[in-house]
Amino acid sequence: MPTYRDEAVVLRTHKLGEVDRILTLLTRHHGQIRAVAKGVRKTSSRFGGKLEPFMVVDLQLYEGRNLDTVSQAEQLANYGAEIAGDYPRFTIANAIAEAAERMTREISSEKNYLLVLGALRSLAVGEIRSDQILDSYLLRALSLSGWVPALDECSSCGSEPVTFSTHTGAVSCRQCTLPGSVQLGTAGLAHMKHLLAGSWEEVAMATEATRSNVSGVIAGYMQWQLERGLRSLSFVERS
Q: Does position 46 have pLDDT exceeding 80, yes or no?
């Protein structure tokens, strides 16, 4: 059978039989794949703890009809160890992994892989508020999937916008309100721009009210585009 090698982040795992696991992986060059790790649940497994959620690995796999099979695995980064010990970060990592899985099932690029990698690395380091890492990731992931929010000027008249449409991702002024629009004001829209750009110093300056409003709008925008929400978001604790 043909074999190939790639870097991957483990998004999700579930049991298969007595000792195997099925892995959902986001790879750097082959998009999202599902693969079997045989014998991984045995204490004597050569894979050990390398194939747990939020770990980054260098894999060799061989292709199968429905599922590929992992034949070699070398750990590149273990973000799971830092994330799993902190419940807020753990729930947010799960939301990121669920969003990544949903948005890369059909089309994925190296940018999707690097975006997830960067989000998990930031969560593990813990220097940036985890809820803001999540909001930034969701906005950027939506943009990579073609749902780029247009935040600069009213989509109808070009004036200063104050509302965001969770249906279209467009912004509007008070006179040109679009369907599904939420009043965010200039501060809220500026915060969305900073999240999208990863301007963390500016992100940190936002008020709690602004963060809360923008988080709700981002979740609503994602739910509209994906046609249903992320189950993991219901477990996310926002400070």
A: no
The tens digit of pLDDT for each residue in 126-151 reads 999 999 999 999 999 999 999 988 89
Six token digits for residue 87: 């419940």
pLDDT digits (tens, 9 = 90+) for 47-57: 767 899 999 99
Q: What is the CATH number of the domain that holds 16?
A: 2.40.50.140
**Domain range spanning residue 189?**
128-230
CB 25 within 8 A of CB 32: yes
Which residue, 99, 88, 48, 54, is CA-closest to 70?
A: 48
| Residue 28: inside a domain | yes
Alpha carbon distance 142, 226 (integer Å) = 10
- Cβ-proximal residues to 51 (8 Å cutoff; 6+ apart), any chain: 10, 13, 21, 23, 37, 40, 57, 70, 73
Strands 171-172, 68-78: pairing is unpaired
Residues 133 and 219 in one domain: yes
| Token digits of residue 21 | 């696991």
Phi/psi region, residue 15 (left: phi>0; alpha: psi -120 to 50; beta: rest), is beta
Query: Whole-angstrom Cα distance, residue 18 to residue 134?
Result: 35
Cut 0.85: pTM above it: yes
Domain-located, residue 62: yes
Structurally, the chain folds into a number of domains equal to 2
In a domain, 217, yes or no: yes
From 43, 62, 81, give the residue that closes a domain. Answer: 81
